[in-house]
Description:
The structure is a homodimer.
Chain A: H1 7-15, E1 20-22, H2 25-28, E2 41-43, H3 48-61, E3 65-68, E4 87-90, E5 97-101, E6 106-110, H4 115-124, E7 127-128, H5 141-147, H6 154-157, E8 164-170, E9 176-179, H7 192-196, E10 205-212, E11 214-215, E12 219-227, H8 230-243, E13 248-255, H9 256-265, E14 279-287, H10 293-306, E15 312-315, H11 319-339, E16 346-348, H12 354-364, E17 372-378, E18 383-389, H13 403-416, H14 432-438, H15 441-454
Parallel strand pairs in A: 2-4, 3-4
Antiparallel strand pairs in A: 1-2, 5-6, 6-10, 7-11, 8-9, 8-10, 12-14, 12-15, 13-14, 13-17, 16-18, 17-18
Helix pairs in contact in A: 8-10, 9-11
Amino acid sequence: MLxxxxxxFADKLKRAGIATRPATDHYVTEMRGNYRGxxxxxxxxxxTEDVSKIVRLCAEDRIGLIPFGGGTGLVAGQxxxxxxxxxxxSLERMSAIRATYPxxxxxxxxxxxxxxxxxxxxxxxxxxxxxxxxxQGSARIGGALSVNSGGxxxxxxxxxxxxxxxxxxxxxxxxxxxxxKRLRKDNTGYDLRNLLVGSEGTLGVITAAALKLFPxxxxxxxxxxxxxxxxxxxxxxxxxxxxxxDCVSAFELISAQSFAFLRATxxxxxxxxxxxxxxxxxxxxxxxxxxxxxxLLVETFEKAMEANLxxxxxxxxxxxQRAEFWAVRETIPEANRKIGAIASHDIALPLGEVPxxxxxxxxxxxxxxxxxxxxxxxxxxxxxxxxxxxxxxxxREAYRDKAPLVTRHIHDLAVARGGTFSAEHxxxxxxxxxxxxYGDPAKRAAMRAIKxxxxxxxxxxxxxxxxx
Amino acid sequence: MLxxxxxxFADKLKRAGIATRPATDHYVTEMRGNYRGxxxxxxxxxxTEDVSKIVRLCAEDRIGLIPFGGGTGLVAGQxxxxxxxxxxxSLERMSAIRATYPxxxxxxxxxxxxxxxxxxxxxxxxxxxxxxxxxQGSARIGGALSVNSGGxxxxxxxxxxxxxxxxxxxxxxxxxxxxxKRLRKDNTGYDLRNLLVGSEGTLGVITAAALKLFPxxxxxxxxxxxxxxxxxxxxxxxxxxxxxxDCVSAFELISAQSFAFLRATxxxxxxxxxxxxxxxxxxxxxxxxxxxxxxLLVETFEKAMEANLxxxxxxxxxxxQRAEFWAVRETIPEANRKIGAIASHDIALPLGEVPxxxxxxxxxxxxxxxxxxxxxxxxxxxxxxxxxxxxxxxxREAYRDKAPLVTRHIHDLAVARGGTFSAEHxxxxxxxxxxxxYGDPAKRAAMRAIKxxxxxxxxxxxxxxxxx
Lengths: 468, 468
């Protein structure tokens, strides 16, 4: 039904004044190396009007297009291994910070701005843009919004969705939705912004966003805390939230396996504990100028000790040590890639279900075949990266065929406890079967109806979210 | 195209096991007395399955239905003055708190639970449900979500939308959307929850919601602060957010006119200042156990004084005085009703545009005809209730025909500054013309396409949001 974006179409784009380039590796590979896209042509719009022009041309010729940000997505939302080859519509040239409004704690960024660019612009305006994760130097805000990415500060500040006040987007018919409002409240009809956010490029191309900033914490304190088990970690989270007046900005669970992988793959990285605890938490507080964050952290840790929720801690003694602590956390995904996972999972659970899930999965999964489990992640959000590795000394290749089995088990266990098979990475192409298995049927029917209504030709990111 | 919900249809509902009652005044009038609904029959489902049954029967017979909560809406979303008479589907019997999860800071409430019920349940679980406004004793959460209501604590905790983790809803075809997830992150397809939230009953009936709770602040401090002008108030807001580590839970602007109306209509109410300041702010801080909220408030106020952002203040000295302060704020809408507004407006502006809007409107509007302006509201959200009254001693009846003119002026001025004609009340039936005038055309087209896709028979709250 769709046609391929071939060199003839590239010529047509050029005649319409749109810059193009051939689709090099960057545009057709993804980080985990599981997919390779077929696309050959990249369009490089310089303006929202360019995007509109491209979408209209695609609609005319029934050519699929993939809105492309930093290429850091983990569910193959940005690469299409099946034809006809879609056009890559890269937002990289639209990376301006259009305006900052320091007195409002808002700014407007084009879709191609990286998270790091936006963080820097926020800092210049004496504000904080809290969306933060390992790939922030290359992840672009358009892509972040299209998958509603999360990261390290969701507990306090929310996901990409929560940080977005408004979007400008090109809809599948080429019309521009002018929704760049800097309003905290605007109840004027359907929430098209939140429909576009998280729709993974299947309903339109986000071209710019109005984003919330926050006051920068005056004081920050960071510690690694050893905990007896995940249940204790959760109770400690409650204690921290209550005792600090909800100043907890990060609460990351790390398993002993994470430290072992780091030691094996990054021998130079400095780990916080001499003797690796079975479970530990990286906790960070951000406070106003009149509250000493370190004192508050130490006081709260002492309360946790008294309640037998913690056994040991390392407080970052300097900005440099804080950076080292975070480097430990943020290097875990890289260590995982070096070890080579059989299967990676981005699950979330209701907070209260996390301990039971970890206990149950930790017991049931190794019964399937010998494996190492690395569970870590954003405990404050109930979001675990639950990854499965071959036994030490063995290669993942030998276990590749077992990936679907273990993934099925993990997703079944999570969903049975009210959890989800995709917390912050999205569905893309990699998890369509999961959406079909676990998605609410009424919701899936509504999704199909909405997709058909807004993109009747099916040109927007064909093959993502829905079977093509 | 639709048929009326008449006694024959009521009989059909009864035969299907659904309780009904005649539509008394409560169901067909609204607070401001501007609309009277034609509905004659109220259906009283006791379960989500009942709601599904009712919707299916309505779909079969092409009968419109109005999901009905507490009847406190201010835009006639709940009353249909035009025929054919829709069925009122009241959620009042579905008012259970289905479960609370103290360790997760979540609870699940049925749509008919009032905000006050939910606040109480949260308190029992040692948590805070922050959605709070004058009508909280009768407003039900289903209605609150359907208009995405706001209120007094949005600055810190967000609107109804932001407090909702998941919904259960009956879609226009009678299917139940099982979306009651207690997850902080769940990126699995289109955000049907946020599409239903704010859709004012035109896409489905919300039957229950999973809601976020927060730690209860250990200490609360509340003060009235006199400010030189709205620009100073805004700079004081920034100063408070920064200096308190973002502990500001309310920041309400009140004009001298508000105090004058209170004095005239509620002579027994105790006002904070002997000499009424032209502008004042009701500010509230909520802190954790280790921070003294009063000291923090006084310190911050002193900084505001030094910066010439404040001239005087009254700190609530006790819980009782705090309640009195809030009674002042929350009685303003009642005072307004006693005075009798010519026209009421629920506008929001980008924060930075509030002072210019107030200056411009305060100059331009009285040039239209003699009037009194009462501007007050949630300054922290850029949300003003900007209401127009006749000159002292005159009746609003004499000015009724001027309402459209002044409303047009106010909405034009707000929208020209990037603002909105409806911040927290919604569109309902009262503001459809505004949506047509000010709404983004691409968004409106998308809204129509979505409505047609999900509710092809047009039975869900016919006449709301769209011209019937």
